[in-house]
Design goal:
single chain, alpha/beta, 7-stranded mixed β-sheet, 15 helices, globular
Length: 468
């Protein structure tokens, strides 16, 4: 199937094409249109031209467009999910879930609105906080969760009156292009557009004077470059960046129960999730049995083609990440780690057997950095205060999990973790009406909830003197 860009309401070919690789095989399976600089500039101009009329529709005027879009996404779930499976890897059930989650996000935000807030009103004055759209939003997505991460930007930005240009990662462009193809018959020209590049249009989009807001999800180093590019025009930005999320296991847990939970939290999408558990701290008495229980689950994982219902884990999404994870594995071996399971490439595509590693020093690369792949270090602690200190001893502060039977004690531990989100006895609970965002070098700004909508608006304080 031929995919096209959506620019100014028209589906159009790119100036050239780029190859899209199926990570299951490591081979090209499709081509995507590659937008030129001129096409990117056309998209920015179209978005700016459309924005004021889109904002003028008001919440109730914009809502039907988003609702129709969500309905069309739902009607195309299987088609989008199959494409997503091919371009990012992963079991088809997980890809259907991702498309369903994205659809639910668009439908949710279609029904939301930001109301004026009266700060103070009396006989002499009326002070009101109002919100209005910032303008043109550029949404830049990573390759690990292209659908959900776009929807968390697109829904709030559109319903608050902004226009949006979506730029997916070059290795996973097709599902985003499919949304553009669906949107072409729904939104007014210029309201939602799609551009695909080979990592060459980012500086233009993030520095353009007519772009008001850049919403970026990706690595911390790239996020810093985005921030630098946006600085010249003082444009607004939302950055959801890397994480090195710690799981702290307390000494009152059931090993089999917590092993199931941690394995799911660590190896979701083959570990390629910003909120995935990246390191585990377990009390000395439980560390070995927990590691063995996790190794058993790792050995039982079924790696393969995502379209096969028997597959439980997919590949790394691209060759660069695959090679990076292999480097992490080699560094863990060099630094004295013991592999209880996995750590070996399968020889086909970008697959690596899920690995459980023990015996590493706390300063090991695999413990200190974000591996973003299927290899999990299990660290031992003798005192929970020491575990908390290790969890916090990171430049990252995205999320984390605490596992324990005494819920009050677990909450007390969680309340000392320096992250934007911390879960107790669960993982990846991200309700659409609850904001999330990172601390430290894991990001700036919020997504989801009314607070996420506010990030795409400008606050205006109206201060009126009443009477004489």
């Amino acid at each position: 199937m031929t995919h096209r860009l959506l620019i100014d309401g028209q589906l159009t070919d790119g100036a050239s094409t780029i190859d899209v690789i199926d990570p299951t095989t490591g081979k090209v399976f499709a081509n995507a249109p590659h937008a030129s600089k001129a096409q990117a500039e056309q998209a920015i101009a179209a978005a700016k031209h459309a924005q004021k009329r889109w904002e003028a529709l008001g919440y109730e005027g914009r809502r039907p467009y988003l609702e129709r879009f969500a309905e069309a996404m739902a009607a195309n779930t299987d088609r989008i999910a199959e494409t997503l499976t091919r371009e990012r890897g992963g079991p088809i059930a997980d890809c259907r879930f991702e498309v369903g989650r994205a659809t639910a996000a668009i439908a949710h935000f279609a029904a939301q609105r930001l109301e004026d807030h009266i700060i103070r009103e009396n006989a002499n004055e009326r002070i009101i906080e109002q919100r209005y759209a910032q303008g043109v939003v550029v949404a830049i997505m990573p390759w690990n969760r292209p659908m959900t991460l776009l929807s968390f930007k697109l829904g709030p930005a559109l319903i608050t009156g902004n226009t949006v240009i979506a730029k997916p990662a070059p290795s996973t462009p097709l599902s985003t292009l499919m949304l553009g193809e669906i949107a072409a018959d729904i939104f007014p020209a210029g309201v939602f557009q799609t551009l695909v590049d080979a990592n060459d249009l980012g500086p233009l989009l993030t520095s353009a004077p007519d772009v008001a807001h850049v919403s970026f999800t990706g690595s911390t180093p790239t996020g810093k470059k985005v921030l630098g590019s946006a600085a010249e025009t003082l444009k607004r930005f939302t950055l959801e960046l890397g994480g090195n999320d710690a799981a702290i296991v307390l000494d009152d847990v059931d090993i089999e129960w917590v092993a199931d939970k941690i394995f799911a939290a660590a190896f979701i999408n083959a570990g390629q999730v910003c909120y995935a558990t990246k390191r585990v701290y377990a009390p000395r008495a439980l560390a070995e049995p927990l590691a063995q229980a996790l190794a058993k689950r790792a050995d039982a994982a079924v790696l393969g083609d995502g379209m096969d219902p028997a597959t439980t884990m997919g590949p790394l999404q691209n060759k660069m990440q695959y090679e990076k994870v292999l480097e992490f594995i080699e560094s863990a071996r060099t630094q004295g780690g013991t592999f209880l399971a996995g750590g070996d490439p399968t020889g086909a595509g970008y697959f690596i057997r899920p690995a459980i590693v023990t015996g590493l020093p706390d300063n090991a690369r695999l413990v200190q950095e974000e591996q973003f792949g299927p290899v999990l270090p299990i660290q031992v602690y003798d005192d929970v205060d020491a575990a908390i200190a290790q969890a916090n001893a990171s430049e990252f502060g995205l999320g984390g999990t605490i596992w324990g039977s005494d819920i009050d004690r677990a909450i007390a531990v969680a309340s000392r973790i320096e992250t934007g989100t911390i879960w107790v006895n669960q993982h990846m609970a991200l309700p659409l009406d609850v904001p999330f965002g990172g601390a430290k070098e894991s990001g700036i700004g919020l997504q989801n909830g009314l607070e996420g909508m506010e990030d795409f608006t400008q606050r205006r304080v109206l201060n009126a003197k009443l009477g004489g």
